[in-house]
Every structure is written in C-alpha cells, then in structure tokens.
C-alpha cells in the first residue's frame, strides 16, 4: 500500500502497480484512517515536502514506513537550483561575488570569503590583502556564524513544537542583521567581501554598535541555554536521536557541527587558518554524544566562541595599528576603483568619487571604466580555498584560463554533502525523529542546489 | 606523499603543485586505483568533493579533492576522459560520500560513472535535456524569456531599430527572439514516471 500526501490530485483512492494511493487533501482524518485500516499491507510510502515547514526550504523526503519505523529515507533535491556556477562563467571575477552570496543565503559572508580567497590565491595576492580587510572579514564571518546558528536553533525549536526558541532566535538574529545593514547597507546577500579586500570600510559608529551587541549577546545566549539545555521535552526529542559516529561522518564527508559532535575537534580555522585566524584566541567546542543534542550544544558553544573572536577583531579594528588603514588591496590593476558610501537610503555610489572621475580626472574615469566593465585578468590555473562555514567546510574550486571571467567555479557546499547523511541518520528510527535529524543537519537548500 | 605517488605510478602519473596543493593527473584506467591508494596508502581517508571541468574540444577533466586529517595534507586528483565517450569507473566503492558528487557531475557534464549504484539526475527538473555545465550549452534563459528589468536600449528587442541589439552574456550572436534561426528548444519535457528511489 502506498499513500501519497498530495494536495494537487482529487480525493479518493487510485490503484497503481506498487499498491493503492491514498490522497490526503484536508478531508476528515478518520476517513483516511478507515481506508488505510482495511489494507493488509504494512509498508507505507510517504512523501514529505517539498513545501513542508520542517524541510528548511524545499527539500523533499520520500519515506518508507513500517508502522512508525522508517525503513527507507530518500531525499529529492534540486528545487532551488539556479545555475549559479554556469552564470558565473559569463560575468567578471568581481561580479561573481554577487552570485555566490546568494547560494547559502544564511551565511553569505562565508560564500563570498571562500570565493575571494580562491581568486586571491590565483592572483597571488593572498599576502597583500590589507590586514584591516582581513580583520573585518573575520569579524563579519563570526557575526554571520552567530546569525546562522541562531536560525538553526530557532527553526529547530519550532519544528519540535516550541515557539519560544524560534522567537528568541529570530529576535537575536535581527540584532546581527541590523549590524550587517549598518555596515554593508544590506541585511542579506551583501556582496561585501571582494577579491582584494572588502567593498567598503566600517562606517562611523559601527565599532560602538558592535560593542553594544557584544554586551547584550552573552546574556541572550544564556537565556537560550536556560530554555533548552535541561528542558526535558527538548532533550527527549534530541538525545540519542540520529546517531552518526566519526566513521560514518568520515565515509560520507560530513563536516561542521555534525562532525564536532562526534568528538573530533576538526575546524579549518585551526587546522589550516586563513584571514589570520591563527592570531585569534578561541576554542573548538566538541561533544562526544554523536546525536542531535550534541550538535545543538556544539552550535551554542560556537556562538559563544564567535563572540570572543568578534571582541578581539573589534579591538584590533579600533586600535591604532589598523585604524584608518585601507580595506582594499593597493594595486591599481586589481583593487576596485569604485568607492561606495553609506547614504540615508543605504549603501550607494560615493558622491566624492563620482565628482572625481566625472569632473577632475580623465585618467581616473578611464581606469574606472576599464576595471568596472571589463574587469581584471586572473592568471591561468586552478586553486581551491576552503573556509569553515557554520555548516562545515565550504570551499571554492576556481579554474581560470587567464581571462577576465572565471572558466569554471565549483562550490563544495557543506549542506550538499551533509544532506547525504539523511538515510544514515533516519533509517531504522522513528518517523517523528526524521524532523529532528534533518534539522540537526541544518541544510540550507540554496547551498545544496546552487 | 609526492614521493610515494611517483614511486607507485612512475611516468603514468603527472605530479604537480598548484598553489601549494599537490595535484596528481592520471589516466582514467588508474583512477580508482589512485583513490584507493590515496585512502589506504597515503592516509587521505576524507573524501571532500568531486567535480568536472569541461575542456573542449577533446576532454572533460574530473577533479576530486582528498584529505588526510591526521597530517593536514591535501590531494587534488585529476583525470581526463574523452568528451565524446566520457566514461569513468565510479569512486563510490572507495568513498561512499562520492555518491551525490558523481550524480551531479553526471548530469552537469554527462560523465558516466560506471558501477555507480543509482546514476540518475540529481538537481535538474525531470526530463531536462543536455548537460548545462558543458561549454557548448548556451546560457539561454534570457533569450527564451526577455528580462523584465531590461534597461539598455536594444535589450529585449525594444528600443530604436538603429541601435545595435545587445544580447545577454552567455548568448552567442545570431540567437535571440528576432534572429533568423530560432534557438533550439531545451528544457523540461514531459515528466518521467515518478521514481520512488529518488
């Protein structure tokens, strides 16, 4: 017997080769149960998603059930495929940033940084990116990690039936998004990190605003911990659920909080530092329970570590050594000539820069025109640069043929790889635990499908 | 690691360094053997990713990134399959996690991974024709449907007729809604039979 949860077809029963199809479209539940009760078969195939609130976007799961036990879990992906990798082959290297920031929409800064680090490797300018730009990148990445983990925990609470963590999580996330808006002009998809540095320096008052955030946030995380850490309703749904040990993670290529919940302190910020992470003082939180609860604990502890890093980065940015220093590489052939300025309606063109190129310097205008419309050339070759995103290893494999546009860009998105763990974590468990298992993977479908 | 690979494969493997990363090029016949050797002999137990790079006219390069978590060593393994007959033995027998990566490479480049347990398209809609990441696949969405946000004169076929018509990036000349030969039809056909194995 096969039941298909499908609102598009007419109510009633249909016979197919594999069994009977029962359509559930909002009729009385007793009717459905009655019809199913007559059947002698125990096997039930249920379609979940793609528009299910607990599927983090548009993930479709096909579950085969034997009673309450999941015997087979299959994922169907691709509903958010946008062809970003193909599109990037027809834009300049700098325009690529605008595309990659839209992949994993909960961690845009990480997408941008991974891509820019790979492009900088190809350009051979990794060491010449200004220290101030690197510190801003680190600070923005850690702010982004907090906002991303907050969504993970918030939606997770909602999916298990608790509204308060959701409200708390999104309220706190709003503080981070406000900071992003203040600094970059946009709350999401900022295209802020560019090859050679960042698009614009911190506006006046940003340091104070982030300082305030650092004062408020530890208390808010404690509130969240108080709500969930010892909550029996929460721990019963999460402890010993969706077990995946180190061997399983290694075989499937799982990274991020899922891997660190197996006890391995694997973090690219420590194992192969980039953007100067080796100079910051922070720990890599781990758990050994290999379950959903462990992954939650790792995420919360990581937010606390991120606050530590933000504090250190902020001290450097406000300190005399980096204050007022450039945020874009001082190389006329690569550094973006266009200056942006924060106006009353967000980030836009800088009036000073426009006045300069339009009325006082012909050379500056030619230079601006050439670099902005044609872009810079990148030497032929291939490079791979990974960063530790909130979900695990996010890497960009970039191939150049020496032109002004990428020849091929491939993204190793952690959500894509981690989602392969759905059968391993769900099969053999209860159907109710599928929700907890998928939520603990924290997939972002924009990153999975790209 | 470099010496071990050179010793085992000799002239059959081309070992190079690409921005600090060890890169090994082997023939398709040595592909599975290289991956197995990397896992068992070199300690690269972590499979990171696998993808393709289309290099017309003759070949498609398949790239895999492996990792040694104990020594923090990377290995970029590459092989080149002919473009008209792109066949490669699957890596799923060596690394279970290669499953989706190979399915993605299969649908985007048309590389057939022999022995893959379930080699069906992964991301694209049912019945999609063509391999989008191949260089000869035209990025034609803007031709099929004019962009509503067009600002340039001549874009979307509007504006003064004396203007040079600008085509969106990725579209070859001679295409477009007003072109003599209409673009070949690509995209979703009738949906296939539902596949419960997904």
From TrEMBL, chain A:
Compartments (UniProt record): Cell membrane
Enzyme Commission designation: 7.1.1.-
Parts forming coiled coils: none
Xref: PROSITE patterns: COMPLEX1_49K
Reactions listed under catalytic activity: a quinone + NADH + 5 H(+)(in) = a quinol + NAD(+) + 4 H(+)(out)
Gene3D superfamilies: Cytochrome-c3 Hydrogenase, chain B (1.10.645.10)
Membrane topology value: Peripheral membrane protein
GO cellular component, one term: plasma membrane
InterPro entries: NADH_Q_OxRdtase_suD, NADH_UbQ_OxRdtase_49kDa_CS, NDH1_su_D/H, NiFe-Hase_large
Role this protein plays: NDH-1 shuttles electrons from NADH, via FMN and iron-sulfur (Fe-S) centers, to quinones in the respiratory chain. The immediate electron acceptor for the enzyme in this species is believed to be a menaquinone. Couples the redox reaction to proton translocation (for every two electrons transferred, four hydrogen ions are translocated across the cytoplasmic membrane), and thus conserves the redox energy in a proton gradient.
UniProt cross-references to PANTHER family, sorted A to Z: NADH DEHYDROGENASE [UBIQUINONE] IRON-SULFUR PROTEIN 2, MITOCHONDRIAL, NADH-UBIQUINONE OXIDOREDUCTASE 49 KDA SUBUNIT
Record's subunit section: NDH-1 is composed of 14 different subunits. Subunits NuoB, C, D, E, F, and G constitute the peripheral sector of the complex.
Family classification: Belongs to the complex I 49 kDa subunit family.
HAMAP family: NDH1_NuoD (MF_01358)
Name of this protein: NADH-quinone oxidoreductase subunit D
Gene: nuoD2
Automatic annotation (TrEMBL), chain B:
Molecular functions (GO terms): NADH dehydrogenase (ubiquinone) activity
Signal sequence bounds: none
UniProt-listed Pfam families: Complex1_30kDa
Span of domain NADH:ubiquinone oxidoreductase 30kDa subunit: 24-142
Natural source organism: Sphaerisporangium melleum
Family, as annotated: Belongs to the complex I 30 kDa subunit family.
Protein name: NADH:ubiquinone oxidoreductase 30kDa subunit domain-containing protein
Superkingdom of this protein's organism: Bacteria
Species classification: Bacteria, Bacillati, Actinomycetota, Actinomycetes, Streptosporangiales
Region span, Disordered: 147-198
């Amino acid at each position: 017997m096969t039941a298909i949860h499908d609102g598009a077809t007419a109510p009633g029963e249909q016979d197919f080769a594999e069994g009977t199809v029962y359509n559930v479209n909002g009729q009385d539940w007793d009717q459905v149960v009655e019809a199913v009760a007559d059947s002698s078969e125990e096997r039930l195939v249920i379609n979940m998603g793609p528009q299910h609130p607990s599927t983090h976007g548009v993930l479709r799961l096909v579950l085969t059930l034997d009673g309450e036990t999941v015997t087979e879990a299959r994922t169907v992906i691709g509903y958010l495929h946008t062809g970003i990798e193909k599109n990037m082959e027809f834009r300049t290297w700098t325009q690529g940033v605008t595309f990659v920031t839209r992949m994993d929409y909960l961690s845009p800064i990480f997408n941008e940084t991974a891509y820019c680090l790979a492009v900088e490797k190809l350009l051979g300018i990794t060491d010449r990116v200004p220290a101030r730009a690197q510190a801003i990148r680190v600070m923005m990445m850690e702010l982004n990690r907090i906002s991303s983990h907050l969504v993970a925990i918030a939606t997770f609470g909602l999916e298990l039936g608790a509204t308060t963590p959701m409200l708390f999580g999104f309220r706190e996330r709003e503080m981070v998004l406000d900071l992003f808006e203040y600094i970059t002009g946009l709350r999401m998809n900022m295209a802020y990190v560019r090859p050679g540095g960042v698009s614009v320096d911190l506006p006046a008052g940003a340091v104070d605003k982030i300082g305030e955030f650092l004062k408020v946030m530890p208390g808010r995380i404690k509130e969240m911990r108080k709500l969930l850490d010892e909550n029996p309703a929460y721990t019963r749904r999460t402890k010993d659920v969706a077990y995946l040990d180190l061997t399983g993670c290694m075989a499937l290529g799982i990274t991020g909080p899922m891997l660190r919940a197996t006890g391995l302190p694997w973090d690219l910020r420590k194992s192969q530092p980039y953007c100067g992470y080796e100079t910051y003082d922070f720990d890599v939180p781990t758990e050994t329970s290999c379950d959903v609860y462990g992954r939650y604990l790792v995420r919360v502890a990581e937010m606390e570590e991120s606050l530590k890093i933000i504090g250190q980065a902020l001290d450097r940015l406000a300190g005399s050594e980096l204050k007022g220093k450039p945020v874009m590489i001082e190389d006329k052939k690569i550094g973006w000539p266009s200056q942006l300025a924060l106006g009353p309606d967000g980030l836009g063109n800088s009036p000073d820069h426009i006045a300069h190129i339009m009325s006082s310097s012909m050379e500056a205008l030619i230079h601006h025109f050439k670099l902005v419309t044609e872009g810079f050339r990148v030497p032929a070759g291939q490079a791979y640069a990974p960063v530790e995103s909130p979900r695990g290893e996010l890497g960009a494999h970039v191939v150049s043929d020496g032109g002004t546009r990428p020849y091929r860009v491939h993204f190793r998105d952690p959500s894509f790889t981690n989602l392969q763990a759905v059968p391993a974590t769900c099969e053999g468990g209860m159907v109710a635990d599928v929700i907890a298992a998928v939520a603990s993977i924290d997939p972002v479908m924009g990153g999975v499908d790209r | 690691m470099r010496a071990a690979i050179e010793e085992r494969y000799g002239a059959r493997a081309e070992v190079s360094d690409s921005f600090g990363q060890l890169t090994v090029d082997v023939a398709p016949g040595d592909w599975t053997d290289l991956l197995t050797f990397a896992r068992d002999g070199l300690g690269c137990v972590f499979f990171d990713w696998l993808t393709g790079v289309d290099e017309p006219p003759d070949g498609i390069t398949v790239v895999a990134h492996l990792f040694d978590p104990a020594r923090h060593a990377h290995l970029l393994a590459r092989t080149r399959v002919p473009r008209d007959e792109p066949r490669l033995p699957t890596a799923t027998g060596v690394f279970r996690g290669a499953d989706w990566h190979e399915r993605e490479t299969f649908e985007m480049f048309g590389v057939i991974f022999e022995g893959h347990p379930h080699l069906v398209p992964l991301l694209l809609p049912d019945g999609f024709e063509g391999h989008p990441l191949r260089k000869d696949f035209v990025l034609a969405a803007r031709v099929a449907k004019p962009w509503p946000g067009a600002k340039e004169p001549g874009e979307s076929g509007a504006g003064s007729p004396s203007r040079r018509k600008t085509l969106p990036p990725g579209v070859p000349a001679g295409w477009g809604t007003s072109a003599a030969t209409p673009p070949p039809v690509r995209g979703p056909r009738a949906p296939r039979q539902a596949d419960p194995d997904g």
